[in-house]
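Progress narrative, work stream C.
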Amino acid sequence: MSQILVPESAPFTPEQRAWLNDFFAKTLTGAAPAASGPVIPVTILWGSQTGNAESCSKKLAKALKASNYEPKTIDMGQYEIDQLPNEENLLIITSTYGDGEPPDNAAELHEYLMGEGVADLSKVNYSVLALGDTEYPDFCQCGIEFDQQLEKAGAKRMFKRIDCDVDFDDEFAEWKGGVMEAMGGSAAAVADVDVIDADEPYGKNKPFPAPLLKTENLNGEGSQRETCHIEIGLEGSDLEYEAGDALSVLPQNPAEDVDEILKLLPFNTKEVVPIPGGGEAPLREALITAYDIRSLNKTLLEKWQKTSGSPFLRALVEAGSKEEYEDFCWGRELVDLINDHPADFSDAEEFVGVLKKLQPRLYSIASSPKAHPGEVHLTVAIVRYNSHGRDRGGVCSTFLSDRAGDVLPGVFVHANKAFRLPEDTSKDVIMVGPGTGIAPFRAFLEEREATEASGQNWLFFGNPHASTDFIYEEQLTAMQKKGVLNQLSLAFSRDQKEKVYVQDRMIEHGEELWKWLQGGAYFFVCGDASRMAKDVDAALHTIAQTHGGMSEEEAVSYFKELKKEKRYARDVY
């Protein structure tokens, strides 16, 4: 067998390249690479809402196994909390969602650490990798709280916490190398080998340029909403997905918005600039395809203030008020900063140096691959509004509806294993998805129909008006007639004097809903995390107390157990 060589162009040191060559050679012959010292036990706990933290934990475990470590990777929701004081080396990887909240599977451990009576953790060595998004005010809040509370309980921080933005590959690599070195084992396997394959399949590192097959407005004439059904081709990509997964879409900024910005800049805008991920491009092209010109956040304002000399921005930054930052950033974009608080950048490279990478947008997939082979469908709310005297729009939603053309720059599948139909197709399924939250449940229903699942299906759906906002009405009605959709509970909030929402319909049907849950039904929610999902959860607890005779504490325990059993799952944002 020919020798596998890591090319010299790969981004590794000579020592790392030599180790990897040795690793590949020994793997092919069944031998393991040499490890120095005794085996070091490591427990990796991950808290994940959409799968990023879980993916990081698997990559870390892979690197640890290649050296003299013995890692255990555990879903926080399945972790026995009384084992915490016995951990020798504890690595926490967690995301944050909503208003600084823990992911669903991390909620119980987070609640324990935030409460009173936490056990003595003085024998525990730990480190935290916090995943977040600087567009949100409570950036990495869950990871920060894990880090602080572990230290408060006596645990020893072996390596600094690293807070990661959406594009976190470099930060993850730094943290991985730091914890491996801190634990005292071999760090030869620190480098990921994912980038070596020149024929890498389409995925996150190599998005697929996908044909846009169809865009259709699902709302009727006169609706205050614009919801598009999007169909995208996957033929030739080898991309695969399951009902419950999400699709990442790479958008582009409007050329006219970029041209307006270029006219306001105080330097030569014909310059070539570096682009995130490597390479260079003319500034105009880079602003259209690679940099975020829409989102303002605390980090950007702090960087901008240093160059602008704006007294207002200086006062804002020095005050450090979360509320004042949020109030200023809402409804403003980069062009507002340039107009109202101009900064004296010396050249184009310095200018883009303060900007964030234009990130892909994540959408819950609205189709079953069994029903639509070679395609993936999305249900997208098109965001348009006016603020501070200017018309605005969502970067990706308006791109998909107005500017995408025939081929999207790139898409890739984001697996969400925490949001899956039950493997036992005889189990009943309850789905709550108002507005675009219906997306994964259209996929679920198509999947249940294609697999001829014998379990019953109950959908709660809501929107403002039945006449204009009953999206997918024809398909849902047809599924009812076929017996695929056994119950459809509708909540059109503005069709009567008193507003009615999906949680109200749940309470109305509380007795039957409780019977379904007691009979083993799976419960799914998709949509807004800060309001709807919380109201639905409160309605569930009310139903358990009213129709199950439970106390408030018993209801809390009951739904915690349902989450552990994967019978209560949420795809919320």
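Work stream C, second folded protein:
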Amino acid sequence: MLGKIDFSFSKDNLKRWWRPRHLLDAPQTKTAHIEFTSRCNLRCVFCCASQPHYRGRDLPAALIEKLIDSLVRRRVEIVCISGHGETTIFPEWVRLSEKMLAAGLKLHIISNFAKPLNPEEAEVLARFHTIEISCDTADADLFSKLRRGGQLSTLTANLEKVRRAGQNKSGPAPRFSFSCVVSDQNVFKLDEYLEFAAANGIRNFDFCNLTKYPDIPAALNPRHVSELPPAEACLALAALERLIANLALKGASFFMHSGLLDSLRSRVREAAQPPAAAEIGPKGGESEPGNAGTSSTQPRKYTSRASSPRQTRDCLDPWNFFLLTSKREVWPCCLHQPIFHLSDGQSLDEALNSLKIMELRRNLLRGTLDADCRICPSRGLVPVGRLRSKVKKLYGLSFLQRFADTLPRLEPVPFAWADGWFPEESAPAKDPALAHWRWTGPRATISFLPPGRDIRLLLRAAVGEANAGGQMLTVRLNGRVADTFEPPGQLFAKEYLLSAAALDRGKKSEWSVAVEKTFRPAGLDPAAGDDRELGLQVFSLELLASPV
């Protein structure tokens, strides 16, 4: 380790050693997930795509092409072209995959392998770095019930097609793996599952923790293993521990979500306690307070619970991972709420170093977990110091360097509410940040004097309920269109970087937002007596400048 450090006492080296480093920054990315589509050709019983409210969509192919240069520049090690949908039903997935491969990117895909692959598709998949196939059981009948619309025979036929296509090319073959959602339906059939996997040349596995969605009528609805009766829960834990031992014996590579084992072990411990000493709380999983009151329409997550206030999630995802969904939302992991909405003209660097994701990183480093991290079913808990050490190691810096985990000092920039704003209103709200707001008309403008430094503009707003799901917004800076986008939800947040180079210091600048559709409250409810033409409900708008 010491042999890699340059000890020469040059001025540049001294600056490099002693310059405070920003642990909340992420200059490069290890793994990127680009969700080509959230549409799916199956309706798996444990997936959100089976819920009645789910609507899939495609990410624009032009946006995916623009991302390729950014992915190369950020030195992404693996690009996964999957999300919640099935990539192989996206019309241009082959062409875009070939462009990424030509750019030198290593590709990964998570696929249900439910659609029979044609020769061209099999050939491009044979050039992938890794292929993860969703398969939960070796029982063909159970497979069809769990992954409704899928056939186990089609999966194995596609696997053979890709392998044959790989024999006709030079270079290494893809590494195949199986992804298995563990539930009460398959936990006692894992021995047969391993034999089936071995027969198909699979030696890599991902055992996933079930997130429980509301039951689907007339379908086989699996339960989490920790919801089994006490005696069966003990047998399920023994089955998983036997599975781990068998995988280790065979030299297989595997990952098992921490919440899966932790919640099941908690259930077994609880069942072994005398009734008077048993914990009072929701059965069926070691869950955080946020899980206890899960409503019938919300998914329930099974997770590890902190035993010490100085613990945090063992998670580096917000530093070296991101998921871009088909809604253009940027997620710091597969389970957290989105932290950015990427519009045309905005870069990945803006998204991955936004104030919101830096706040998330700081919370992890200090053990002050937000609601999503508290109930994470995937990552276990570790002392805060261990995660901090991992982040420092991730940066590859010497022990002489200093590390800062404070947010950048940003100074408020005064601005004036110019045209198109209605007076501020307020009403009691569960979230204090939503208790005050201003409505815009068709277009609203603010004016400010640039301080000669970069400015971050933070906007939190909501689309009028009458126009939810079909509103388009246009943002202008000094009359020029800076962004046009459809909000990803009724309530949304945006962050813009206004560079000093684009603004004249000391000369008044204007920023405006315009809506495609307006509405009048009186038109929805004549008794309201409010005939204003309303556009956007703005809860907060801030301008923050970088320090001198």
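The longest helix spans residues 230-250. No further action is required on this item.
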